[in-house]
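User: My advisor asked me to double-check a structure prediction for PPM-type phosphatase domain-containing protein before group meeting. I don't want to rely on an old file, so could you generate it fresh from this sequence?
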Amino acid sequence: MEDFHVAKFIETRGDELGLFAIYDGHLGDSVPAYLQKHLLTNILKEGRGGSTAVTAILINGRKLWIANVGDSRAVLSKGGQAIQMSVDHEPNTERGIIETKGGFVSNMPGDVPRVNGQLAVSRAFGDKSLKSHLRSDPDTRNADIDLETDLLILASDGLWKVMENQEAVDIARKFRDPQRAAKQLAVEALDRDSKDDISCIVVRFRG
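Assistant: Sure, here is a fresh prediction for PPM-type phosphatase domain-containing protein from the sequence you gave:
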């Protein structure tokens, strides 16, 4: 398990900011520990590991910004309908860019596509050995939080490999307590025999 998550509210310049993020580390557990201590400062100096990330900033409970690098995902629920707010950065999807940078995408039988036969995502930060062939720029989206907005789910790919967006929303909406909802999603992913790291944050909106 190489994940690390952030979920907190802070006050700054008269605004309330909700900060939520999941970092899915790979190639070593130094990355999540380093993130916890240094909040991404100088991460590229730290060993051979790397990470994907999905982050959300909620401004005064009214405006939501999402950014992601890699295959951790953000899903918003409006009136119970799942809306994917992030982009899964998969090697086959961005094969042309990887090859332009001098890398390659392997497609071995029984395995997922991998950059240079190693990494199963086309965007990440860190990963010194693959840095020249990867992108680290995030995709971003934003949404207004209205009365129909139920909840937000952030989760690493261990959840999404075994669960569709709408399934996750349907499960999470059964619980008023967001921590119980997040725990239930993780339990369900385990019950479905997920083999990857599973981290989940559920944010409930007041409506």
